[in-house]
Structure formats: structure tokens, C-alpha cells
Write a structure and sequence with these properties.
It comes from Pleurodeles waltl. This is Thyroglobulin type-1 domain-containing protein. It is built from 30 helices and two strands. The protein is mainly α.
């Protein structure tokens, strides 16, 4: 689903009329990169590990050789029913609401107790109607809340072109569908053609009838990626300026608010225009309209940070739309002017309610716009179980647009004016200009995950790393972050989430004893801000639920005074067993809440190498762990018992051993995003992939998943992986 791309951009309509126009690419990859040539059906030999939204032929073979039912595509976004479940529809037994990567038994109970009809499938992304609500002979679509079925055609959602069921569906966010596709306008005039719903609202609440122009009274706050006609009427009746286009991410100004000759953008309520510059949001720099924007879900920003006042415009200095890992001073002012407690921390991922909105005695969370509160429970989001406020949240964030989509065309590079704080995975040229015009040092690169130092801060001959806010530069070495090994600049960096760095790497302990070696921050806060001073052991009184990458000393005192047991270390990232729960001789890790022990080795979560307890740990979200780290040593493989469903971005050696000791066939590498088959399961000559539990390998062909070109073995793995 190439978000924001026109059909011409998707399918290369500029080719000759005889050319194949159906080859639509995934984000950032040319078809040649993905699949080969037109004459060679390609996907089965491609490394399409993250090719989301590919047609069935690309995923599982050719149209004449449907292999989809051998694929474990439980939550393959944008697949038809045949792609997802084969010719034997089993999806109706599943509660596939959002549980990505879980087996059917975990989703819905047992085979004998199908509960799908009673499920609230409001966020079943990319599922067909049959998967959601039954079989073709039992259409239950009208009973389902299919509010976010992104990327499906009308036929996939509600039937076939000859059997128009769309009027019975709640197609609130049918991305890219015309109004005719939504409401079956090809039917007779007496048909119920005006019932096109947004998220959570009935047709009557939103828009009225065809004879009563409706959009201007609608609350279209989450109508993602709809064109203007779909939102507010017909081309001859442009009503876009009356619309609340709060989440029109990636749309041009013309798409948002009218035509190029009728710019109406300043009347738009662009409340969640992520990665748009202030000029794109509400006008030009000389005409600041941001103060009239409905910035209800502007991630992590306070109103002051977003728009300021007329006399004190701070928006230009703070492109903090997703400022993860920034200090309080960076977020909301200076240390002498603490504004952080008044911030709208709507996307403060992993923060407790106290951190979000006040203290336990002063619950202010209900004032927060917690629409994208990833991970927290409902109580954390909107109050307590007895006072449910969650239903007032507004949801959405569209990530992954190209620079042209974000800020103009290739010939008119506006990227340097853009607030590209969430442009994950873009090259420096995409982010801030061309290679000959390095603008990267002017960018707010606070969340550019996986970029090299050159991409972040310039060239090797011009190291500007110490001037960058590299607080969440995940995966960079210390040299990439802060200079070279001979020029230790670590103490000058805001390394609040330097994942995988030792305390020495963080704070330059190789310097003299008098150096500032203890200033290693938790997420966004300095140590002093979090917990006190060196003379006052601090961690046990702090709410350190997201104290990423801190050593035990930082968390809970000194080596001689282990207080880790009293800490709330539910997200102890990168800590050894001794760091987590006491000394190596006193393994108490079994009492720890290790539900999200990110990047922990086996010995780290649950004891010592001689006392492996990993089988008792709930490592369901152990991101980035090798098999040995998770469940034992190379000689004692326990990985088969571990749910390694989200091992993102690891090489084969990292995941399952060394190149000489390939253990990949014992690993359930279900979401190894971005890895080639060789990285996942061995080499091309030794295919082990068919024994993997690849339940959520998004965008992989069957060959990539489970066999070689000449030895398809997916069928045996299917029953084992999907229903096991």
C-alpha cells in the first residue's frame, strides 16, 4: 500500500501501452529490486521480506499456481481471503483483531470453540470480509466494525463486483476507495448509497443523506488518505474547506483543501499532520496559522511547543513531533522553567500514568490526548477501569512517505524545511537534500533509527556528531554516535537511549576518575531529574518503568548495595542477571516482571549460564535476541519453546549461532523483517526455512518462507506453524 502515491506512481503508467502496468512496488524499492524482470515471475526468488501489500502472485506464486494456503499469512495486510486462508475458509474461527504473530489457538481459544462472531474486529488491518465475519454463504459483514481495513479493494472487503455488499459494511477508512466503491452507487437510486462511515460513527452521525451535503457537519478526524471528493462531495462541489482533515497525512494541499487555484489549507484542522512543516500545516512562516489548528494528537508536543503564542512563536525551533528520548529541557523549555509537567504526552510510550499526567493523588491523565498511547493499558491511557475515558481517543500515524510525498516534488526539494522527525529509514539525501548539498546537520534527527553517523551529521571528514541530538540513534556504535575511539565525546552526547552501549561507552569511564562519568540518562531525563544525586541512592523511589539501558548501579544504588528487587524494572533493557536482581550468586530473576525484556541474553533475564531458567520467562516480545540469548547455549537449544515472534533485524549469526553452527532451523523467526533467506535460515544451498514458524513473515513468498525453488516443503510446516 504505497501510501500517498498516485496510481501512475505505483504502476509505472508512463511505460508504453503494451507494458505491464500492474507491477506496483512497495515503498522505496523498484520492481527490479524486488522481483526481477517481467518475463520471470519473480517473487518466489526475491528477498521480499517486508514487501507489504503485494498481490497474491508476488507473495505465494503465480495465479495459476496458488500456493497461498500453504503460507502462514495470518495477518498479511491487504491479502484476499484466498491469500490468507486458502480455499478452505477457516478465518471465521479466529479473533484476528490486532494480535499479530499469534497462533489461532492463542487468538481465539480452541478449535472447538470458535468465537469470531462475538469479536470486536475494529482494527483487523487488511483482513477480508470472510476472514472477519464468516464465509461467502454467511455474510456477517454488517455486524462487524471494519473501521481500519486498510488497503483492501471493495471486492475483498464486501464481496465481488457482481455481488455488491458494500452498503452493508462499516467501511469507515476504506483507504483509496472512491465514494462509488464505498456505497455501491452503481446500484439503483433507491439503494442505501449514502452510508459511508468514518471510524466509530454511524452514517447519520457523520454526514446525513445525499440530498443534504454532509461532510461539513462530519467529524472526519481519522479519514486517512482519502481524496477530497471522498471527504466532502463531488468535484463540482468542493466542500473540503469545511472538513476536519485532522489526519490527512501525505496528501498534497490540493488534496486536502481544494484545488491548486483555490488554496483552502488555512481553514483545515490538521491536527495530526505528522512530518509536515509548520508552513505545510497552516500557512506560511509570515502568516502563522498554527494557533488555529486542532493539534489534538500531535505526538509528544505541548500546544506551546507546536504553535506557541503570537508574541512568542516557538514552533520554528522545536520540530519535536515525535521527540522520543529528549530531555525535559529539550521538550518543554529549560531546567529553570520546567514545563514538562504541563505537556500533552500523548505518545509517551511506556510511561506510567504518574509520568504522563501527574501523581497518583492528582490524576491528570484524562486531560491528555492519548490517542496513540502505544503499549499502555486502558487504565494508563484514559484513567481507571471504573472511569473509562479511552473511547474519546483519536487514532493514527502514517509513516513511510517519500520526500517528494512529504515536501514537494523531486525538482522542488523542500525537504530542508520539513520536520522529518519520523522519516524512519530514509537516506540523508531523502531527508535533507542531495549528496552534494548536505543539509543533514540542520535536521532534527532525534528518531532516525539505524542511520550512520555520516547520514546523521555530515561526512567522515566533517564529524558533527557531538552537535546532534542523537538520543535514539539505535544500533550505532559509540564511534558513530560521538566521534572516534581516540576522541571520546560520549559525555557530551545526549545518549539517553543508547541501546546496547555499556556504561563505559555511555559515559567515557576510560577518562580520568574526575570526569563526568555518572551522567547516563534514562529516557528523556537526566539522572538528577529522575532520581536525585550520587550521594542519595535514587532508583528505588523513581518511577523507572522505561529506564532503558541503565546499569543496576544507575537504577538501584551501588554494587555493594543492590536494591534492584525494590525497583519497578518491568522494561529492563540490556541488563545482566546481576544488574537486574542482585549478584550472580543470588539469582532472583524469577521474581522479576520480564515481560518486555528487550535485548536480554538468556543469562541476563533469569540467572546464570549454569542455571538456565529461560523457559519460565515470558519472553514474548524479546526483540533482537539470538537463540542462545533467549533460551540457552548452542549446545542446549531451547529456542523451540520460546516465542521469538518479533526478532527484528538480526543476521542469521545473531539469531541462531555462528555461520559455522547454523541453528536457524530451530528458530521461529516469524517477523525477521529485512533479512534475506540466507540470513534467516542458512545459505541458499542449505535451506532450513521450511522448519521455521514464519507466521507473520510479512510480504514473503512461499519459496522465501519454506523451501527452495525445487523443493517446496511449506505444506508440512503449515500445520505445524499455524495450528501448533
Amino acid at each position: 500500500m504505497c501510501v500517498g502515491l498516485s496510481r501512475a506512481q505505483r504502476c509505472a503508467l508512463t511505460l508504453s501501452p503494451g507494458a505491464s502496468s500492474a507491477h506496483c512496488w512497495c515503498v522505496g524499492l523498484s520492481r527490479a529490486q524486488q522481483c526481477g524482470t517481467d518475463n520471470e515471475p519473480w517473487c518466489k526468488v526475491c528477498s521480499l521480506s517486508v514487501s507489504v501489500e503485494l498481490p497474491r502472485a508476488q507473495r505465494c506464486g503465480t495465479d495459476t499456481e496458488p500456493r497461498s494456503k500453504e503460507c502462514s499469512l495470518l495477518v498479511c495486510v491487504g491479502l484476499s481471503r484466498v491469500q490468507q486462508c486458502g480455499t478452505e475458509p477457516r478465518c471465521k474461527e479466529c479473533s484476528l483483531s490486532v494480535r499479530v504473530g499469534q497462533s489461532r489457538a492463542r487468538r481465539c481459544g480452541t478449535d472447538t470453540e470458535p468465537w469470531c462472531e462475538e469479536c470486536s474486529l475494529s482494527v483487523c488491518v487488511g483482513l477480508s470480509r470472510v476472514q472477519q465475519c464468516g464465509t461467502d454463504s454467511e455474510p456477517r459483514c454488517e455486524e462487524s466494525s471494519l473501521s481500519v481495513c486498510v488497503g483492501l479493494t471493495r471486492a475483498q472487503r464486501c464481496g465481488t463486483d457482481t455481488e455488491l455488499w458494500c452498503e452493508e459494511c462499516s467501511l469507515s477508512v476504506c483507504v483509496g476507495l472512491s465514494r462509488a466503491q464505498r456505497c455501491a452507487l452503481t446500484l439503483s437510486l433507491g439503494a442505501r448509497s449514502a452510508q459511508c462511515w468514518c471510524v466509530g460513527l454511524s452514517g447519520a452521525q457523520q454526514c446525513g443523506t445525499d440530498t443534504e451535503p454532509w461532510c461539513k457537519v462530519c467529524s472526519l478526524s481519522v479519514s486517512v488518505e482519502l481524496r477530497r471528493v471522498q471527504r466532502c462531495g463531488t468535484d463540482t462541489e468542493p466542500r473540503c474547506k469545511e472538513c476536519s482533515l485532522s489526519v490527512c497525512v501525505g496528501l498534497s494541499r490540493a488534496q486536502q483543501c481544494g484545488t491548486d487555484t483555490e488554496p483552502q489549507c488555512k481553514e483545515c484542522s490538521l491536527s495530526v499532520c505528522v512530518v509536515l512543516s509548520r508552513a505545510q500545516r497552516c500557512g506560511t512562516d509570515t502568516e502563522p496559522w498554527c494557533k488555529v489548528c486542532s493539534l489534538s494528537v500531535s505526538m509528544e508536543l505541548t500546544r506551546v511547543q507546536q504553535c506557541g503564542t503570537d508574541t512568542e512563536p516557538w514552533c520554528k525551533e522545536c520540530p519535536l513531533s515525535v521527540c522520543v528520548g529528549l530531555s525535559r529541557a529539550q521538550r518543554c523549555g529549560t531546567d529553570t522553567e520546567p514545563w514538562c509537567h504541563g505537556c500533552s504526552l500523548s505518545v509517551c510510550v511506556g510511561l506510567s500514568r504518574v509520568q504522563r499526567g501527574g501523581t497518583d493523588t492528582e490524576p491528570q491523565c484524562q486531560e491528555c490526548s492519548l490517542s496513540v498511547c502505544v503499549g499502555p493499558t486502558r487504565a494508563q491511557q484514559c484513567g481507571t477501569d471504573t472511569e473509562p475515558w479511552c473511547k474519546e481517543c483519536s487514532l493514527s500515524v502514517c509513516v513511510g512517505l517519500t520526500r517528494a510525498q512529504q515536501c514537494g516534488t523531486d525538482t522542488e526539494p523542500w525537504c530542508k524545511e520539513c520536520s522529518l522527525s519520523v522519516c524512519v529509514g530514509l537516506s540523508r539525501a531523502q531527508q535533507c537534500g542531495t549528496d552534494t548539498e548536505p543539509w543533514c546537520k540542520e535536521c532534527s534527527l532525534s528518531v532516525y533509527v539505524g542511520l550512520t553517523r555520516v547520514q546523521q551529521c555530515g561526512t567522515d571528514s566533517e564529524p558533527r556528531c557531538e552537535e546532534s541530538s542523537l538520543s535514539v540513534c539505535v544500533g550505532l556504535t559509540r564511534a558513530q554516535r560521538c566521534g572516534t575511539d581516540t576522541e571520546l565525546r560520549c559525555e557530551e552526547c545526549s545518549l539517553s537511549v543508547c541501546v546496547g552501549l555499556s556504561r563505559a561507552q555511555r559515559c567515557a569511564l576510560t577518562l580520568s576518575p574526575g570526569a563526568r562519568s555518572a551522567h547516563c540518562w534514562c529516557v528523556g531525563l537526566s539522572r538528577a531529574q529522575q532520581c536525585g544525586t550520587d550521594t542519595e541512592p535514587w532508583c528505588k523511589v523513581c518511577s523507572l518503568s522505561v529506564s532503558v539501558e541503565l546499569t543496576r548501579v544507575q537504577r538501584c544504588g551501588t554494587d555493594t548495595e543492590p536494591r534492584c528487587k525494590e525497583c519497578s524494572l518491568s522494561v529492563r533493557v540490556g541488563l545482566s542477571g546481576a544488574q537486574q536482581c542482585d549478584a550472580d550468586t543470588e539469582p532472583q530473576c524469577k521474581e522479576c516482571s520480564l515481560s518486555v525484556c528487550v535485548v536480554l541474553s538468556r543469562a541476563q533475564p533469569c540467572g546464570t549460564d549454569t542455571e538456565p531458567w529461560c523457559k519460565e520467562c515470558p519472553l514474548s516480545v524479546c526483540v533482537g535476541l539470538s537463540r542462545a540469548q533467549q533460551c540457552g547455549t548452542n549446545t542446549e537449544p531451547w529456542c523451540k519453546e520460546c516465542p521469538l515472534s518479533v526478532c527484528v533485524g538480526l543476521t542469521k549469526a545473531q539469531q541462531c549461532g555462528t555461520d559455522t553452527n547454523p541453528l536457524c532451523k530451530e528458530c521461529p523467526l516469524s517477523v525477521c523483517v529485512g533479512l534475506s533467506r540466507a540470513q534467516r535460515c542458512g545459505t541458499d544451498t542449505e535451506p532450513w526455512c521450511h522448519e521455521c514458524s514464519l507466521s507473520v513473515c510479512v510480504g514473503l513468498s512461499k519459496v522465501q518462507r519454506c523451501s527452495t525453488d525445487t523443493e517446496p516443503r511449506a505444506r508440512s510446516a503449515h500445520s505445524q506453524c499455524v495450528w501448533g
